[in-house]
Amino acid sequence: MKSYRKELWFNIPSRRGFVNITPQVEEALAESGISDGFVLVNAMHITASVFINDDERGLHGDYERWLEGLAPHEPIDQYRHNDTGEDNADAHLKRTVMGREVVVAVTDGKLDFGPWEQIFYGEFDGRRRKRALIKIIGE
Amino acid sequence: MKSYRKELWFNIPSRRGFVNITPQVEEALAESGISDGFVLVNAMHITASVFINDDERGLHGDYERWLEGLAPHEPIDQYRHNDTGEDNADAHLKRTVMGREVVVAVTDGKLDFGPWEQIFYGEFDGRRRKRALIKIIGE
Amino acid sequence: MKSYRKELWFNIPSRRGFVNITPQVEEALAESGISDGFVLVNAMHITASVFINDDERGLHGDYERWLEGLAPHEPIDQYRHNDTGEDNADAHLKRTVMGREVVVAVTDGKLDFGPWEQIFYGEFDGRRRKRALIKIIGE
């Protein structure tokens, strides 16, 4: 069994944002030399997400509004987590909806994807340096 | 390390529906000859889901109503994704709640499941041919 | 490839509760002798969750209130699943939001975690004995 590990760093300039990281995951897969196995990609922070969906700007706006409806940022004093001095309780909830991680099959040295699958880093409490982890195992 | 790959095809006749695919995953596992490892099962489309829950008709109706409350299909012009000519923005959101994939342990050649765990394909934008991927790694 | 399997048992005295199981997962990882690979941790019941977030009491209360807003326990007759004699339909939905499983990278014999990541068992229909599964593969 071979394995490969790589961190991706982000510094999203706004509180929330989505970044398509499919090229970086493909690059890591090429570097790994692994042609068959699994790739795990996960946020290393608990107010961020890694998820798979469509790279379509309208949909990303829909996600933004929908998540804000499900777990509003304000008023920040509606959340007991924010009593600790944080203002990011909503980011923990939004990340929960979107998910921490994805596991993707590797076949013939490629991400074994359907036609529209793209991997995104989803930031819900940005304006600071944060990381995602790529870990690949296989042969 | 051994690996095995298989696609499952669906053509759900309605917009939404759930299909218990546990027998097909068990069949793929038997075909693989793998007795110890992980099975990944994921939707290959971004308006569909693979998830684990109960095979109980009442619950499936509850899921349908609950998801429609969280991310209503209509009015379709509430979603900017639908400005592209699609009418399936809600399906992207519903699939996000239900999840893209499951990873299941394989032990002694069986899906290592609790008493009620069953694997479902969840369709949120059907009436066309779509796929799920089964990928198994182990020994 | 090596593998290791362990069950964790719970008997949460209330309907809902969160338990930090990171120490138990670390202990299983040490027992496995695996230094590089993946750990899968999943609920073996469909009204419970395994998820990764912060070990902060205020946030856990926020999760409790937020989930109750998204999928209220009462009135129990709002759910067709409860026509079967159960009263736990909401627990199936809450577990869906929180997720069934996590996959964590193992590097140098440790859980390859960011600074605040902790693994929790989330119970939504407690007051009985239930299980989570730890399965580790790697070398």
Task: Write a brief structural summary.
The structure is a homotrimer of 139-residue chains. Chain A has 139 residues and is of the alpha+beta class. Chain A has helices spanning 22-32, 57-70, 89-98; strands at residues 2-10, 17-20, 37-43, 48-53, 101-107, 110-111, 118-123, 130-138.
Main attributes of the structure:
homotrimer; 139 residues; alpha+beta; five-stranded antiparallel beta sheet; three-stranded antiparallel beta sheet; 8 strands
Description:
The structure is a homotrimer of 139-residue chains. Chain A is α+β, with helices and mostly antiparallel strands and 139 residues long. Chain A is elongated and about 50 Å long. In chain A, strand 5 (101-107) and strand 6 (110-111) form a beta hairpin. Chain A has helices at residues 22-32, 57-70, 89-98, and strands spanning 2-10, 17-20, 37-43, 48-53, 101-107, 110-111, 118-123, 130-138. The N and C termini of chain A lie close together (5 Å). Chain A is built from three helices and eight strands; from the N terminus they run ββαββααββββ. The mean pLDDT of chain A is 98. Helix content of chain A is 25%, strand content 36%. In chain A, the strands form two sheets. A five-stranded antiparallel β-sheet of chain A has the order 1-8-3-5-6, with helices on one face. Chain A has a three-stranded antiparallel β-sheet with strand order 2-7-4. At the A-B interface, strand 4, helix 2 and strand 5 of A face strand 3, helix 3 and strand 8 of B.
Pair of chains with the largest interface and how many residues each contributes:
A-B, 34 and 31 residues
**Number of strand segments of chain A:** 8
Tell me the distance between the termini of chain A. Answer: 5 Å
SS content category of chain A: alpha+beta
Instruction: Provide mean pLDDT of chain A, rounded.
Output: 98
Taken from the alpha-carbon principal axes, the silhouette of chain A is elongated
Uncertain regions of chain A: pLDDT < 50 for 5+ in a row? none
Number of helical regions of chain A: 3
Strand order of the largest sheet of chain A: 1-8-3-5-6
State the share of residues found in helices of chain A, binned by percent.
25-40%
Multimeric organization: homotrimer
Strand fraction of chain A:
35-45%
Main sheet summary of chain A: 5 strands, antiparallel
Order of helices and strands of chain A: EEHEEHHEEEE
Any idea what the radius of gyration of chain A is? 16 Å
